[in-house]
Amino acid sequence: MKQIIECVPNFSEGRDLGIIKQITNQIELIEGVKLLDVDPGLATNRTVVTFVGSPEEVIEAAFNAVKKASEIIDMRKHKGEHPRMGATDVCPLIPVSNISMEETVVFARRLAERIGNELGISVYCYEEAAYKPERKNLANCRSGEYEGLSEKLTDPNWKPDFGPAVLNETAGAMAVGARDFLVAFNVNLNTTSTRRANSIAFDVREKGRVMREGNPITGKIVKDGKGNQVFVPGTLKAVKAIGWFIEEYGIAQISMNLTNIRVTPVHLAFDEVCLKAEARGIRVTGSELVGLIPLKAMLDAGKYFLAKQQRSLGVDEKELIKIAIKSMGLDALKPFHPEEKIIEYVLAKDQKKLVDLTSKGFVNLTASEAPAPGGGSVSAYIGSLGASLATMVANLSSHKRGWDDRWEVFSKWAEAGQKLKDELLFLVDEDTKAFNRIMDAFDLPKKTEEEKNIRREAIQEASKYAIEIPMRVMKSAYNALDLIEEMVKIGNPNSVSDAGVGVLCVRAAVMGAYLNIKINATGVEDRDFAMIMLSEGFAIQQETILREERILSLVNEIINKL
């Protein structure tokens, strides 16, 4: 699945919209990158830009934006209320989807090295990308700000991680890092009291509240040996929170920044505020997300609330999101539109996919003069139906009267089925993309010898990919047999025929995908690669046929006993 990262560079210009537009234009020039937000500040004289995309595309867009900022922003003339040290002050990368923090750090350091080497800007790596512990904290990296850079760069302890150890007078210096996704999340209360809201905020935020002697409200503040206030920690790690009154809504809220949703996800933050509010005689009436949120965070929330109900977690993505929205009251103050609030959905908004067609639309397109979707896409779609039927049996079995103590077993099987279904649905479109890659390669120019070599190599790479995709279809469809067979054995016997139809779908998917491997292998010059794929595909096909016969025999045996 596609890797997605977010980039949130801060540029030291918040007043001249023309300069800001020149910078953001560089981001929008990169295909596959989506500019999500541009937030200029007059007093800070600073603009926060947010964009997302695949890692390679994002770091290319980030580099181009940093380059443009270094050319048109002169730090010698910059004034603003916010701490800053360069034309591009900070540039964090944030993992969003299908990418680890460790992988994100690699991309952040690559970007930092390129900026230092090619643009001659001093770069410090911070947060998770830091090379030194003291540089993990952005405030340390930025200490002294632009005005103190000349002296700071002469200190061996503050030699930049990349770039020169001398001041670039116009561009200054910058920090490039990798950090966790920050979610701005507000919880609504049935009170107008800011003081009571703050009390709840202090209960939950990591920093907690000031320790007092005796009375927790009026008692003398406790201080340590250095004269610093002592705090009683709150219950949620990686959470900043404050209570406030929102005149627009006429209610008080707990306003939270969840700085690491792997540590404290939105659903746990919501439930903890509910708990603390109830202890103070206050009720939570809903919540709101400010900005965007990764898809996984919403899916995790949906699963969390389903598990509390002892319901199967193996339901569709759309249903999980619906459960999350209703459980946390995300639509209490205004409508919550997933396509506008979930990063992956915002990215995919303008993309046309086969799987988004109606079933009738898909069939009609397949029956048209268009060469795609073809047999490969249809095979993947049939496979997804096989996995879906078995998943349905798992979900029905988890709700069967008298089987309440077995819901988790069926839930785990249903979750596995959903993953296989989603993978096969992804491959429906990917197979068509693979076909289009071959067509695009054949359309490349072939006048010169160099062009002919480039074209030939592109055709071969595309042809190999057109074999790899149906191989993935074969493997994913075959893996669905484990789920199908288990549901035949332990699932609701009244649904055993559905599992039987599922195994027939899997057989069709496997054999159909293998036909695609065979026909595409004829155009591959790398015969070792072709023979390995053909051999592996044949083995999967033969094993599928054997398992199909065994499972169908068991299906008919169960039906005959009903």
Structure commentary:
The protein has 562 residues and is an alpha+beta fold. The chain folds into three domains: 175 residues, 2-Layer Sandwich (Formiminotransferase-cyclodeaminase, Chain B, domain 1), CATH 3.30.990; 165 residues, Alpha-Beta Plaits (2-Layer Sandwich), CATH 3.30.70.670; 208 residues, Four Helix Bundle (Hemerythrin (Met), subunit A), CATH 1.20.120. 52% of the residues lie in helices and 14% in strands. The strands form three sheets. Strands 1, 2, 3, 4, 5, 6 and 7 form a seven-stranded mixed beta sheet that branches. Strands 11-12-8-13 form a four-stranded antiparallel beta sheet. β3 and β4 form a beta hairpin. The model has no long low-confidence stretch (mean pLDDT 93).
Features:
562 residues; alpha+beta; Formiminotransferase-cyclodeaminase, Chain B, domain 1; Alpha-Beta Plaits; Four Helix Bundle (Hemerythrin (Met), subunit A); 17 helices; 52% helix; 14% strand
